[in-house]
Amino acid sequence: MAKAATRKTAAATPSAERRAALAGQELSATGVKLAVLPPAERISLRAPEASLAALSKALGVTLPRKPKTSASKAGRTALWLGPDEWLVIDEAGKDPLADCAEVTALHSAVGISHRNIAISVTGPAAAAAVNSGCPQDLALEVFPVGAASRTILGKVEIVLLRTAEDAFRVECWRSFSDYVFTFLSEAAGDAAA
Amino acid sequence: MLLIRCPYCEEERPELEFRNAGEAHIARSANIAGESDDDFEKFFFIRSNPKGIIHERWRHMHGCARFFNAVRDTVSDKFIITYKAGEPKPAKLPKISNEVVAK
Q1: Chosen from B10, B64, B103 to mutate, greatest number of chain A CBs within 10 A
Q2: In this structure, are residues A61 and A71 in contact, taking their beta carbons and an 8 Å threshold?
């Protein structure tokens, strides 16, 4: 009996504490500000054309069909990554995975909330800072507000989303987050100079 | 840096996002176990490696992640045309001069 009781308490209080990578780190340089964004719910969504209407309805955000675009509604953003691939980020604390689970149309939704870390790059020199490691053209005409793309930064793959004229959201894998933040810190210093 | 047009992203993107994936339009036999050793060797190892126009598979690895086909000139390294995977070889190729053009 005593044994069972201890087991119960152990289950109630998890011994491992979840610590987000780089939680709360920030950096300010002239013209550029970096900040590690709070955790968010994310899914990687793959679906054929025929399922898009049902999935868009369940997620509450219309999945974009044009390359390099994103759609956003009520704290939930869907980013076009490929012809049948989307990254859905929910910052309002609701789980998009649960919403997709109710859809019977063919799709694959994989929870990747803890795989990614988001870093915001803001300020007048934000584009210059990102461009120091990302070869894409980030001029407003070709990469407008809302534009999103999987691309590279230095040696690693990132997903880049322009949230405002002078603000970017950089999504990278958790294990690469230290590299990305350090890279962007150096870049912020250079962009300011 | 080369700019390569991805037919799925519908725009030119920097070459760092791409990976070459070998020669295109090499069909795998539906009955691979029934292939003779010579035929299998031809399918598996022998590539045309031409000087000039070559059809290649490329992958937009750090972008939309899709494979597509490209016609490239191995002499000038210029991409002549890119098209989606599964589409036939383009019958007519646009003429591209090999001279360096400053944009």
Answers
A1: B64
A2: yes
